[in-house]
Amino acid sequence: MSDITKHRRFVATAVAVTLGATTLAACGGSDDDGEAQSGPAKLTYWTWTPGMDKVVDLWNKGPGKEQQITVTVKKQASGDTLVTKILTAHKAGKGPDLVQAEYQALPTLVSNDAVADIAGEAGDAKGRFADGVWQQTTLGSDAVYAIPQDIGPMMFYYREDLFKKYGLEVPKTWDEFADTARKLKKEDADVDLTTFSANDSGLFAGLAQQAGAEWWTTEGQKWKVGIDDTATQRVADFWGGLVKEGAVDNQPMYTPAWNKALNTGKQIAWVSAVWAPGTLTTAAPDTEGKWKVAPLPQWSASENTTGSWGGSSTAVTTDSENKGAAAKFATWLNTDPEALTALAKEGGIYPAATTAQTSDAFAEPPAYFSNQADFYTVASEIAKTTAPSAWGPNVNVAYTTFKDAFGAAAKNKSDFGAALKTMQDDTVADMKKQGFEVAE
């Protein structure tokens, strides 16, 4: 048995996953993964990306027509809703051929044998992506469970005009970030550098990722949960300390109050990702042209790495009777220049493929950042430094616990370390409850 097969069967058969009220037992991978039926292939693709039907039309009228592979888009909700739908469909043997999957959802889909290993069909696709991005679709193995589609490299956004007004420098390290927050408070007690938002599990996960955290790994035939590892403790203690001393706000993001704070200059920076311009356009319309972007602060001046907040991939399901054909489409969709340009134009995504990040589609900055002509040049350089991630089969449980435990800690300005331990304990308890073997 090959190492790939061993890894796949370990992940696919050693675990059972609960998502919401749906419990599914994993089953072994099929022996014909990657094989396609001969003759014309008609494929279905479940995705939430806007305008995907227009992108798929390019395939159907071009390469797909030549290869007799037709793809039909079926629009879906995103997040846990889609994962649950996929697992339910797979249990009935009626899954689509392809599915858009967020990176953190892939371990759940793999453990339920819902997505196929397409390593044999991916060709030279690996070279089109940053190592840290590609790793998210391999789960650290020689298998390939999806082709990266879009990414969310994290960056630091700040009001250039207000930084000048308050005599602030763009922080290059997290220590400088803390000092900047304190200096701003001395200049104007009514203004915050930013807020810690306990509503945003993905933001915290990305910050931990940047610090070197590995929340889920395998140890022999067991899972190891490291949510309260040293790297994440460092992140929790850092933000908990700033919240406790009042150096940053403790209110959640994406609320009317948060929008107003950004729009009126009561918060002058935001730790976010490459997709932030779209959010700022609606949250702070009066500040267009006043923001700039820079790399995320580092834990030491010698480092150069970022975390990831968001992003998804295109996976081929094990239910597909045309896995080879589906893999061809997935690879084309996320590596072909014409497809990537269309994805950026029609779907508004930031592509995972490194060559696309410097294509003509990103020659001009977002309209909101018309004052920063090199916005996408900066973004592409930051994207190359994306740190590897380590996702597990019950991310949804960890994220839910984060919102509860950190929500209370942020509101009460209490110990973030204790909240992190709760997150660890609840995640481990859930894994054991579902039959996972967890290393202590």
Labels describing this entry:
single chain; 440 residues; alpha+beta; D-Maltodextrin-Binding Protein, domain 2; 2 domains; seven-stranded mixed sheet; two-stranded antiparallel sheet; 11 strands; disordered N terminus; membrane; signal; Extracellular solute-binding protein; lipoprotein
Task: Tell me what portion of residues adopts beta-strand conformation.
Answer: 15-25%
Q: In whole angstroms, how far apart are the ends?
A: 28 Å
Alpha-beta content class: alpha+beta
Q: What gyration radius follows from the Cα positions, in whole Å?
A: 22 Å
Low-confidence stretches: 1-36
Please count the helical segments: 17
CATH architecture of the largest domain: 3-Layer(aba) Sandwich
Instruction: Report the major sheet.
Output: 7 strands, mixed
Could you give me the name of the CATH homologous superfamily of the largest domain? Periplasmic binding protein-like II
Shape: globular
CATH class group of the largest domain: Alpha Beta
H/E series, N to C? Answer: HEEEHHEHEHHEHHHEEHHEHEEHHHHH
Number of domains: 2
Could you tell me the mean pLDDT? 90
Q: How helical, in percent, are the residues?
A: 40-55%
**CATH domain topology of the largest domain:** D-Maltodextrin-Binding Protein, domain 2
Structure description:
This protein is globular. The protein is of the alpha+beta class and 440 residues long. The longest helix is centred in the C-terminal third of the chain and has 18 residues, at 395-412. β1 (16-19) and β2 (22-25) form a beta hairpin. The chain has 2 domains: 41-151 and 311-357, D-Maltodextrin-Binding Protein, domain 2; 154-308 and 388-434, 3-Layer(aba) Sandwich (D-Maltodextrin-Binding Protein, domain 2). α2 runs antiparallel to α14, α9 packs across α10 (230-245) and α16 (395-412) runs antiparallel to α17. The chain is 41% helix and 15% strand. Strands 3, 4, 5, 6, 9, 10 and 11 form a 7-stranded mixed beta sheet that branches. Strands 1-2 form a two-stranded antiparallel ribbon.
